[in-house]
Protein backbone atom coordinates (compact mmCIF):
# COMPACT_ATOMS: atom_id res chain seq x y z
CA UNK A 1 0.00 0.00 0.00
CA UNK A 2 1.46 3.33 -1.06
CA UNK A 3 1.14 6.05 1.59
CA UNK A 4 -1.32 8.84 0.84
CA UNK A 5 -1.70 12.30 2.38
CA UNK A 6 -5.15 13.03 3.84
CA UNK A 7 -7.16 15.31 1.58
CA UNK A 8 -7.43 18.85 3.00
CA UNK A 9 -11.24 18.96 2.80
CA UNK A 10 -13.63 16.98 4.94
CA UNK A 11 -13.39 14.56 7.86
CA UNK A 12 -11.91 11.11 7.17
CA UNK A 13 -14.62 8.48 7.01
CA UNK A 14 -17.45 11.00 6.59
CA UNK A 15 -18.88 11.77 3.11
CA UNK A 16 -18.94 15.39 2.04
CA UNK A 17 -21.95 17.58 2.47
CA UNK A 18 -22.76 20.90 0.84
CA UNK A 19 -20.12 22.81 2.82
CA UNK A 20 -17.30 20.49 1.78
CA UNK A 21 -18.36 20.56 -1.87
CA UNK A 22 -18.43 24.36 -1.74
CA UNK A 23 -14.97 24.40 -0.18
CA UNK A 24 -13.69 22.11 -2.92
CA UNK A 25 -15.19 24.33 -5.64
CA UNK A 26 -13.59 27.43 -4.09
CA UNK A 27 -10.15 25.82 -4.62
CA UNK A 28 -10.63 25.47 -8.39
CA UNK A 29 -9.22 28.07 -10.77
CA UNK A 30 -9.37 28.60 -14.52
CA UNK A 31 -6.03 27.63 -16.06
CA UNK A 32 -6.77 27.62 -19.79
CA UNK A 33 -9.43 28.74 -22.25
CA UNK A 34 -12.10 26.48 -23.70
CA UNK A 35 -13.05 29.31 -26.06
CA UNK A 36 -9.52 29.67 -27.42
CA UNK A 37 -8.38 26.05 -27.42
CA UNK A 38 -11.60 24.27 -28.42
CA UNK A 39 -14.31 26.60 -29.71
CA UNK A 40 -12.03 28.68 -31.91
CA UNK A 41 -10.59 25.67 -33.79
CA UNK A 42 -14.07 24.20 -34.19
CA UNK A 43 -15.53 27.45 -35.50
CA UNK A 44 -12.68 28.05 -37.92
CA UNK A 45 -12.92 26.71 -41.45
CA UNK A 46 -13.12 22.98 -40.86
CA UNK A 47 -12.71 20.02 -43.19
CA UNK A 48 -15.02 19.75 -46.15
CA UNK A 49 -18.05 17.66 -45.34
CA UNK A 50 -18.10 18.40 -41.61
CA UNK A 51 -20.53 20.67 -39.81
CA UNK A 52 -20.36 21.98 -36.25
CA UNK A 53 -23.60 21.96 -34.25
CA UNK A 54 -24.41 23.09 -30.72
CA UNK A 55 -26.13 20.36 -28.74
CA UNK A 56 -26.58 22.16 -25.43
CA UNK A 57 -25.19 24.60 -22.92
CA UNK A 58 -23.76 24.32 -19.44
CA UNK A 59 -24.70 27.28 -17.28
CA UNK A 60 -22.66 27.33 -14.10
CA UNK A 61 -22.94 31.07 -13.44
CA UNK A 62 -24.93 30.44 -10.25
CA UNK A 63 -21.83 28.66 -8.92
CA UNK A 64 -19.53 31.52 -9.86
CA UNK A 65 -18.32 29.79 -13.01
CA UNK A 66 -19.14 30.36 -16.68
CA UNK A 67 -21.58 29.45 -19.39
CA UNK A 68 -20.30 26.94 -21.94
CA UNK A 69 -21.79 26.04 -25.33
CA UNK A 70 -21.45 22.33 -26.05
CA UNK A 71 -20.37 21.54 -29.58
CA UNK A 72 -20.49 18.43 -31.74
CA UNK A 73 -19.13 17.83 -35.23
CA UNK A 74 -21.03 15.61 -37.63
CA UNK A 75 -20.85 14.51 -41.24
CA UNK A 76 -22.77 16.97 -43.37
CA UNK A 77 -23.54 14.26 -45.92
CA UNK A 78 -25.08 11.77 -43.49
CA UNK A 79 -26.25 8.62 -45.25
CA UNK A 80 -28.31 5.78 -43.83
CA UNK A 81 -26.35 3.10 -45.66
CA UNK A 82 -23.00 3.96 -44.10
CA UNK A 83 -21.62 2.71 -40.79
CA UNK A 84 -21.65 5.32 -38.04
CA UNK A 85 -18.62 6.28 -35.94
CA UNK A 86 -18.87 8.07 -32.59
CA UNK A 87 -15.79 9.78 -31.14
CA UNK A 88 -15.94 11.29 -27.66
CA UNK A 89 -13.27 13.29 -25.86
CA UNK A 90 -12.88 15.44 -22.78
CA UNK A 91 -15.33 13.54 -20.60
CA UNK A 92 -12.67 14.24 -17.99
CA UNK A 93 -11.58 17.74 -18.86
CA UNK A 94 -8.08 17.42 -17.40
CA UNK A 95 -7.25 14.65 -19.88
CA UNK A 96 -5.90 17.04 -22.49
CA UNK A 97 -5.05 14.72 -25.37
CA UNK A 98 -8.59 13.35 -25.33
CA UNK A 99 -9.70 16.78 -26.53
CA UNK A 100 -6.72 17.81 -28.61
CA UNK A 101 -6.30 14.36 -30.16
CA UNK A 102 -9.92 14.50 -31.32
CA UNK A 103 -9.36 17.92 -32.86
CA UNK A 104 -6.17 16.69 -34.53
CA UNK A 105 -8.04 13.78 -36.11
CA UNK A 106 -10.81 16.08 -37.24
CA UNK A 107 -8.62 18.52 -39.11
CA UNK A 108 -6.18 15.95 -40.50
CA UNK A 109 -8.06 12.70 -41.07
CA UNK A 110 -11.80 13.41 -41.27
CA UNK A 111 -11.87 13.96 -45.02
CA UNK A 112 -10.10 10.66 -45.65
CA UNK A 113 -13.06 8.77 -44.20
CA UNK A 114 -15.92 11.11 -45.07
CA UNK A 115 -17.14 9.10 -48.05
CA UNK A 116 -17.17 5.77 -46.16
CA UNK A 117 -18.62 6.48 -42.70
CA UNK A 118 -20.92 8.86 -40.88
CA UNK A 119 -19.03 10.61 -38.07
CA UNK A 120 -20.36 12.18 -34.90
CA UNK A 121 -17.70 13.70 -32.64
CA UNK A 122 -18.16 15.29 -29.21
CA UNK A 123 -14.59 16.52 -28.63
CA UNK A 124 -14.93 18.30 -25.27
CA UNK A 125 -17.83 16.99 -23.19
CA UNK A 126 -16.74 18.73 -19.96
CA UNK A 127 -15.59 22.29 -20.80
CA UNK A 128 -15.50 23.66 -17.24
CA UNK A 129 -13.29 20.75 -16.27
CA UNK A 130 -11.14 21.41 -19.34
CA UNK A 131 -10.57 25.00 -18.20
CA UNK A 132 -9.86 24.09 -14.57
CA UNK A 133 -7.89 20.91 -15.46
CA UNK A 134 -10.28 18.81 -13.45
CA UNK A 135 -11.83 15.36 -13.37
CA UNK A 136 -15.17 16.49 -11.92
CA UNK A 137 -17.77 19.09 -12.81
CA UNK A 138 -18.42 22.05 -10.44
CA UNK A 139 -20.82 19.93 -8.37
CA UNK A 140 -17.98 17.48 -7.59
CA UNK A 141 -19.61 14.86 -9.83
CA UNK A 142 -17.62 12.60 -12.15
CA UNK A 143 -19.51 12.50 -15.47
CA UNK A 144 -17.72 9.28 -16.41
CA UNK A 145 -19.38 7.37 -13.61
CA UNK A 146 -22.82 8.83 -14.35
CA UNK A 147 -23.49 8.20 -18.04
CA UNK A 148 -27.21 7.59 -18.31
CA UNK A 149 -30.21 9.45 -19.80
CA UNK A 150 -31.26 10.94 -16.44
CA UNK A 151 -27.73 11.64 -15.19
CA UNK A 152 -27.29 14.21 -12.41
CA UNK A 153 -24.12 15.26 -14.29
CA UNK A 154 -25.43 17.58 -17.00
CA UNK A 155 -22.35 16.92 -19.14
CA UNK A 156 -23.24 13.24 -19.38
CA UNK A 157 -26.98 13.79 -19.76
CA UNK A 158 -26.61 16.25 -22.64
CA UNK A 159 -24.01 14.09 -24.40
CA UNK A 160 -26.32 11.08 -24.11
CA UNK A 161 -29.23 13.09 -25.57
CA UNK A 162 -27.06 14.35 -28.42
CA UNK A 163 -25.96 10.87 -29.44
CA UNK A 164 -29.51 9.51 -29.16
CA UNK A 165 -30.79 12.29 -31.44
CA UNK A 166 -27.94 12.47 -33.93
CA UNK A 167 -26.75 8.86 -34.14
CA UNK A 168 -29.24 6.38 -32.69
CA UNK A 169 -27.39 3.49 -34.39
CA UNK A 170 -23.62 3.47 -33.72
CA UNK A 171 -21.25 0.86 -35.15
CA UNK A 172 -17.99 2.10 -33.62
CA UNK A 173 -17.34 4.20 -30.52
CA UNK A 174 -13.88 5.47 -29.55
CA UNK A 175 -13.72 7.30 -26.21
CA UNK A 176 -10.48 9.24 -25.68
CA UNK A 177 -8.95 9.42 -22.18
CA UNK A 178 -5.69 9.76 -20.23
CA UNK A 179 -4.31 8.30 -17.00
CA UNK A 180 -2.15 10.89 -15.23
CA UNK A 181 0.02 11.22 -12.14
CA UNK A 182 -2.64 13.54 -10.72
CA UNK A 183 -4.97 10.54 -10.49
CA UNK A 184 -2.93 9.55 -7.43
CA UNK A 185 -1.86 12.97 -6.18
CA UNK A 186 -5.22 14.75 -6.41
CA UNK A 187 -8.23 13.03 -7.91
CA UNK A 188 -8.03 9.70 -6.09
CA UNK A 189 -7.64 11.30 -2.64
CA UNK A 190 -10.40 13.82 -3.45
CA UNK A 191 -12.79 11.04 -4.46
CA UNK A 192 -12.03 9.08 -1.30
CA UNK A 193 -12.60 12.16 0.85
CA UNK A 194 -15.82 13.05 -0.97
CA UNK A 195 -17.20 9.53 -0.47
CA UNK A 196 -15.91 9.03 3.07
CA UNK A 197 -13.74 6.07 2.06
CA UNK A 198 -10.09 5.09 2.28
CA UNK A 199 -7.95 6.28 -0.61
CA UNK A 200 -6.71 3.64 -3.03
CA UNK A 201 -3.38 3.92 -4.83
CA UNK A 202 -2.33 2.16 -8.03
CA UNK A 203 0.88 2.64 -9.98
CA UNK A 204 0.15 4.77 -13.04
CA UNK A 205 0.96 2.65 -16.12
CA UNK A 206 3.88 4.10 -18.07
CA UNK A 207 2.42 4.04 -21.54
CA UNK A 208 -0.71 3.71 -23.63
CA UNK A 209 -3.37 1.13 -22.91
CA UNK A 210 -6.98 0.37 -23.82
CA UNK A 211 -10.07 -0.41 -21.80
CA UNK A 212 -12.50 -2.76 -23.55
CA UNK A 213 -16.07 -3.40 -22.49
CA UNK A 214 -16.23 -6.82 -20.85
CA UNK A 215 -19.67 -7.33 -22.42
CA UNK A 216 -18.23 -6.96 -25.96
CA UNK A 217 -14.44 -7.20 -25.72
CA UNK A 218 -13.63 -7.82 -29.42
CA UNK A 219 -10.02 -8.87 -28.70
CA UNK A 220 -8.87 -8.83 -32.34
CA UNK A 221 -10.09 -5.24 -32.66
CA UNK A 222 -8.27 -4.15 -29.50
CA UNK A 223 -5.09 -5.92 -30.65
CA UNK A 224 -5.16 -4.10 -33.99
CA UNK A 225 -5.36 -0.75 -32.19
CA UNK A 226 -2.49 -1.57 -29.83
CA UNK A 227 -0.32 -2.62 -32.76
CA UNK A 228 -1.01 0.68 -34.55
CA UNK A 229 -0.39 2.89 -31.52
CA UNK A 230 2.83 1.03 -30.65
CA UNK A 231 4.39 2.76 -33.66
CA UNK A 232 3.65 6.14 -32.07
CA UNK A 233 4.05 5.82 -28.30
CA UNK A 234 5.04 3.10 -25.80
CA UNK A 235 2.43 0.55 -24.69
CA UNK A 236 2.04 0.10 -20.94
CA UNK A 237 3.42 -3.11 -19.48
CA UNK A 238 1.54 -5.07 -16.83
CA UNK A 239 2.72 -4.72 -13.24
CA UNK A 240 4.18 -7.73 -11.34
CA UNK A 241 0.63 -8.83 -10.49
CA UNK A 242 -0.33 -8.86 -14.17
CA UNK A 243 -2.52 -5.78 -13.81
CA UNK A 244 -2.92 -2.21 -14.99
CA UNK A 245 -4.40 0.16 -12.37
CA UNK A 246 -5.41 -2.86 -10.32
CA UNK A 247 -7.25 -4.58 -13.18
CA UNK A 248 -6.06 -7.83 -14.80
CA UNK A 249 -4.49 -7.49 -18.25
CA UNK A 250 -6.42 -9.54 -20.83
CA UNK A 251 -3.82 -9.16 -23.58
CA UNK A 252 -0.86 -6.78 -23.96
CA UNK A 253 -2.08 -3.24 -23.32
CA UNK A 254 -5.75 -4.16 -22.79
CA UNK A 255 -7.94 -4.43 -19.69
CA UNK A 256 -11.71 -4.89 -19.37
CA UNK A 257 -14.38 -2.93 -17.51
CA UNK A 258 -18.11 -3.60 -17.38
CA UNK A 259 -18.92 -0.26 -18.98
CA UNK A 260 -22.70 -0.07 -18.64
CA UNK A 261 -23.14 -0.82 -14.93
CA UNK A 262 -20.18 1.44 -14.11
CA UNK A 263 -21.85 4.40 -15.84
CA UNK A 264 -18.93 4.95 -18.21
CA UNK A 265 -19.13 6.89 -21.46
CA UNK A 266 -17.99 3.77 -23.30
CA UNK A 267 -21.24 2.05 -22.34
CA UNK A 268 -23.56 4.69 -23.76
CA UNK A 269 -24.17 2.88 -27.07
CA UNK A 270 -24.65 -0.68 -28.24
CA UNK A 271 -21.85 -0.36 -30.81
CA UNK A 272 -20.26 -3.72 -31.57
CA UNK A 273 -16.83 -2.11 -31.68
CA UNK A 274 -15.84 0.04 -28.73
CA UNK A 275 -12.64 1.07 -27.03
CA UNK A 276 -11.56 3.59 -24.42
CA UNK A 277 -8.02 4.91 -24.79
CA UNK A 278 -5.71 5.72 -21.89
CA UNK A 279 -2.63 7.79 -22.70
CA UNK A 280 0.05 8.61 -20.10
CA UNK A 281 1.11 12.23 -20.69
CA UNK A 282 3.43 12.39 -17.67
CA UNK A 283 5.80 9.73 -19.00
CA UNK A 284 9.38 10.82 -19.72
CA UNK A 285 9.12 8.59 -22.79
CA UNK A 286 6.48 10.67 -24.58
CA UNK A 287 5.47 14.23 -25.49
CA UNK A 288 2.12 16.06 -25.71
CA UNK A 289 2.31 15.82 -29.50
CA UNK A 290 2.81 12.05 -29.31
CA UNK A 291 -0.14 11.74 -26.94
CA UNK A 292 -2.37 13.61 -29.38
CA UNK A 293 -1.04 11.47 -32.21
CA UNK A 294 -1.78 8.26 -30.30
CA UNK A 295 -5.41 9.34 -29.90
CA UNK A 296 -5.75 10.23 -33.58
CA UNK A 297 -4.09 6.99 -34.70
CA UNK A 298 -6.50 5.00 -32.57
CA UNK A 299 -9.52 6.62 -34.24
CA UNK A 300 -8.18 6.05 -37.75
CA UNK A 301 -7.14 2.44 -37.12
CA UNK A 302 -10.51 1.72 -35.50
CA UNK A 303 -12.32 2.99 -38.60
CA UNK A 304 -10.03 0.98 -40.85
CA UNK A 305 -10.88 -2.12 -38.84
CA UNK A 306 -14.59 -1.34 -39.06
CA UNK A 307 -14.29 -1.03 -42.82
CA UNK A 308 -12.28 -4.24 -43.09
CA UNK A 309 -9.13 -2.47 -44.24
List keywords for this structure.
ten-stranded mixed beta sheet, metal-binding, alpha/beta, 309 residues, globular, metal ion binding, zinc, hydrolase activity, acting on ester bonds, single chain
Question: What is the secondary structure topology, with strand pairs?
Answer:
Layout: H1 18-26, H2 34-43, E1 50-59, E2 67-75, E3 84-89, H3 96-113, E4 118-122, H4 127-132, H5 154-166, E5 172-176, H6 182-195, E6 209-213, H7 219-229, E7 243-244, E8 247-251, E9 254-257, H8 259-262, E10 273-278, H9 288-307
Parallel strand pairs: 3-4, 3-5, 5-10, 6-9
Antiparallel strand pairs: 1-2, 2-4, 6-10, 7-8, 8-9
Helix pairs in contact: 3-9, 7-9
Q: In the CATH scheme, what's the topology name?
A: Aminopeptidase
- In DSSP terms (H or I, runs of 4 or more residues), the helix count works out at 9
The 3D shape can be described as globular
CATH architecture: 3-Layer(aba) Sandwich
Q: Please write the CATH class name.
A: Alpha Beta
- Strand order, main sheet: write it out: 1-2-4-3-5-10-6-9-8-7
Write the H/E string, N to C. Answer: HHEEEHEHHEHEHEEEHEH
Fraction in beta strands: 15-25%
Mean pLDDT: 96
Distance linking N and C termini: 45 Å
What is the fourth-level CATH superfamily?
A: Zn peptidases
Q: Evaluate the radius of gyration.
A: 19 Å
Helix content: 25-40%
Structural class: alpha/beta
User: Can you tell me the residue ranges where pLDDT is under 50 for at least 5 consecutive residues?
Assistant: none
Q: Oligomer, anyone? A: single chain
Pfam family, one: AstE_AspA_cat
Region (Disordered): 179-198
Protein name: M14 family metallocarboxypeptidase
Domain Succinylglutamate desuccinylase/Aspartoacylase catalytic: 83-183
